[in-house]
Amino acid sequence: MAEEVKDRVKLETRQSFLEEKQRTLESNLEGLQEHRKEVVETRDRHLAEVDEKIQSITEEIDACRNELSKIADLQAELQTTTEALDTTTNGEHHPQHPLKGETIMAGEVKDEAKVDMNPEEMQRSLAEMQDKILEVRRELAAAQAKLKIITAQSDASIDSGKREALDALFRLPHDTKDPITWCYAGAYRAASGQQSRRGSIWSDSIDNFISRAPDVEIVKLATFFTNPTVVAVLRQLVEGKKSVTDLANGCGISESEMEKTVVLLIDGSLVYRTEDGLIEPKHDAVFYFFNFVGMTRVYLDPEDH
């Protein structure tokens, strides 16, 4: 009887200990989940800030290009006015006894100058244009200086965001055996102006993480990237959807050969054909390509990170 009481007490003590441990682990898990949520929100906020600054820089560059275009127009106008002024000045100084033809030509130059502008007005217009050019150049210099500041700030923000993202990525879960934290993420803006972003972070045990991707599926996806034409097609689709003709020309193959590759990619759910017959990347096809690019860069140069 005494032994049974002792055993019961031990079991109850063990039960209490395990229940307390469970509550502690659940509390720790809740804290980690909340921390992960904060990390993701911080990352998204930094990405949004970087996108805004990139947009601002793009607008500043467009403004600089517009100012340069104005300067070119003003310089062309200045050149035209200067030539007209020289023609008028030359037309006023002709021989005392010109030939009949020369008299007529000089008269025509004078008449045209009178219609357009007299020398004093031309001089004033010339001075105004020179002042305007100086003003535009000052504005351009100020815009370029501002652009340098914005670029430096953007670079600093991006570097800071990278460090924070890596710090978050390098944190391992504390309550997991053989823990792993892994990331699949990125953002880019294509030549067409379309912006895409994708991000996933896993915090798990190594066994759970890799068991979700069977070997056969890993090989199936990797096999696409052993086909040089597939790699070349995905490289082109980074810019956006393209026609079969454009893809074929870009790969240096016939359209019939390209059509076979397109069918292969459609069957693999990596691209689809739009209603107007263009080929557009599907799901994460371009991000798969970028991940292979990143892996290849590190493979070629382990210090490239």
How would you describe this protein?
This protein has two domains: 2-169; 213-300, Winged helix-like DNA-binding domain superfamily/Winged helix DNA-binding domain (Arc Repressor Mutant, subunit A), CATH 1.10.10.10. The protein contains nine helices and four strands; from the N terminus they run αααββαααααββα. The protein is elongated. β3 and β4 (279-281) form a beta hairpin. It has 305 residues and is mainly alpha-helical. α1 crosses α2 and α1 runs antiparallel to α3 (119-169). The model is unreliable at 92-115 (pLDDT under 50). The strands form two sheets. Strands 1-2 form a two-stranded antiparallel sheet. A two-stranded antiparallel sheet has the order 3-4. It has helices at 2-92, 100-116, 119-169, 206-211, 215-224, 228-237, 244-251, 255-267, 285-300, and strands at residues 179-189, 195-205, 271-273, 279-281.
Number of H/I helices = 9
The largest beta-sheet arranges its strands as 1-2
H/E topology pattern:
HHHEEHHHHHEEH
Average pLDDT, all residues? 77
Instruction: Please tally the β strands and state the result.
Output: 4
**Over all CA atoms, what is the radius of gyration?**
36 Å
Catalogue the unreliable spans.
92-115
* Computed structural class: mainly alpha
Strand content: 5-15%
| Shape category | elongated
Overall tally of structural domains: 2
Helix content: over 70%
For the largest beta-sheet, the strand count, sense and barrel status come to: 2 strands, antiparallel
Query: How far apart, in Å, are the first and last alpha carbons?
Result: 69 Å
